[in-house]
Amino acid sequence: MTSVVETKKPATSTPALTVEDLVVEFGVGRGQTVHAVSGISFTVGEGETLGVVGESGCGKSTAGKAIMQLPSPTSGSIRLGDVEMTSLDPEALRRSRTSLQMIFQDPISSLNPRRKVKALVTEGPSIWGNKDKAAVEKRAREVLAEVGLDPDMVWDRTPRELSGGQCQRVCIARALMLDPKVLICDEPVSSLDVSVQAQILNLLEDAKRRHGLSLLFIAHNMAVVKNISDRVMIMYLGRVCEIVPAEDMQNRALHPYTQLLLSSIPDPDAGATAEQNVEQTAVELPSPLNPPSGCRFRTRCPLATDRCAAEVPQLRLVDDGHQVACHNV
């Protein structure tokens, strides 16, 4: 995959998004509860990209949707700037969400197949009362060009007439039309061809710089997250294991789970044997219906002790911008 353009800049001290003790649980009948997200806390600074990574089922996408209040979380605090979103009435929440937009994993299914691109991209401003159709259309054409699409070519097309990469560009354009402050990207490149992935990543970096966006970038690909993020938050089974600066992640990662994920990045010089790969992955994963007590990673951790089973490790600051939740590091 082509390398991503480096456009990172230090975040300011003012958080664009603050999440505290976020809990998301789902009842599944017979008295059982899925503990999807269990008390995670983090901030996203203005102009910062926070990557969120973890195995499938760790709760990263659920956390992103809960921040959007889709649906509302079980408990916890979500502040967009100074606005506490969890306490807003439905109309105030609807208005505040213009500043918080989301790009979904499957670009084709996230677009109405019956509507043309011109309707999809101009819908947001039209809903919010902008009656100047000429101005809205001009802005839409500018944004489509900004995301790498020819407005004249795609204007009257429907999503089924576009490729996956083109549909994802339409989704990005649709989000930018409302001038958001925070953009949640839920695995935006995982369903795209490898040749298109770097283009979309570069596009997001460019949009971040042009519009002063903060990004919450959710993915399962560790290499992609390292390239695009300023900091990386690692999740496992609904909890945060570590938050580490991306630029020196390889050397500064402390949590055993983070190190396991880093070791999964393909390295042509590593020469790992098939037997070693099987041994590393042949572990029965815990269920979010009945997660382990204490540290949820302890059933797979080589450093686990009795304390890990009895006590939940708290996220603590170990260095500038670096937090870890582990009793043994």
Structure description:
With 329 residues, the chain is an alpha/beta fold. The chain has a single domain (15-324), classed as 3-Layer(aba) Sandwich (Rossmann fold). Helices cover 33% and strands 22% of the residues. It has 12 helices and 12 strands. The strands form 2 sheets. Strands 6-7-8-3-9-10-12-11 form an 8-stranded mixed beta sheet, with helices on both faces. It has a 4-stranded antiparallel beta sheet with strand order 2-1-4-5, with helices on one face. Mean pLDDT is 88; it is low at 1-12 and 272-282. Residues 17-262 form the ABC transporter domain. This is ABC transporter ATP-binding protein. It comes from Rhodococcus spelaei.
Output the radius of gyration: 21 Å
Q: What summary fits the major beta sheet?
A: 8 strands, mixed
Query: How many DSSP H or I helices?
Result: 12
Give the CATH architecture: 3-Layer(aba) Sandwich
General shape: globular
Helix and strand string, N-terminal first?
EEEHEEHEHHHHEHEHEEHHHHEE
Number of strands: 12
CATH superfamily: P-loop containing nucleotide triphosphate hydrolases
Comma- or semicolon-separated keywords:
12 strands; Rossmann fold; 329 residues; 12 helices; nucleotide-binding; alpha/beta; 8-stranded mixed β-sheet; ATP hydrolysis activity; ABC transporter ATP-binding protein; ATP binding
